[in-house]
Amino acid sequence: MIQINKQLHRRCAGLVVFLVAVSGAAATAPAIAADTPVIAAASSLSGALEEISRGFTRSTNEQVRISFGSSGNLTRQIIQGAPFELFLSADEGYTNTLESKGLVDGNSEVYAVGRLALFIPDGSSLAADRSFENLARALTDGRLRRLAIANPEHAPYGRAAREVLEYHHLWQAAQGNLLLGENVAQAAQFAGSGDVDAGIVSASIAQEPALADKGSHVILPDAWHTPLEHHMVLLGDAGSVAHAFRSYLHDEAANAIFQKFGFSTPGHTQ
Question: Which residue ranges form the domains of the chain, and what is each CATH number?
Fold first, then answer.
């Protein structure tokens, strides 16, 4: 796998602002109390949850703080005692792991289903081709130097990206070209940096202005990978506000925001 170099870090700086703004959105709201519940959330939810949390505050006058990361890393933090009250995972396996360890309050449930997108930054010689034929040719003719995806070892969107490449028999051929992000948000940073030829990221982040303004994208067929069913579960010390936020995520207002960001929700299809 390609290692991250200093030049790439510098060129990613502009998109870092976007990620910091998202992850700190709730924390910068006025007068957040010290006992405000902290929600652990998959990074693919960044834009949607920022907007949903504002709606929750308007509706209830309560606030939450949100910590974004890869589902696998957040699971590890919860097991190690991180004081989260609700976990919004991008994969059922991680909520099952917490349940097996007795760390949850009730059962997990699906709150959204994600999609993958192929993102092509401005200036790339590749095309935003939903058939994937252009990317396959680019692997053989040398145009594809770097392909950004999330790390499949602990990021569900990275695992799904690997499945897409495997579906097209490209996984082995792409090994020397992969640039792995810690999570899908970091993979999106790389995809928009100008040093990457393409990225397979979440459709939700591909639609965020911070990335969308830097290139073009196409939504990939969900038949190419295991469904990205996002599961959430309350954790053992969840308080009343965390319970209320979980309920709010099923509200029609929250459903509409999820759908705006490219997710489908239970009872609704895209």
Answer: 13-114+228-260 (3.40.190.10), 115-224 (3.40.190.10)
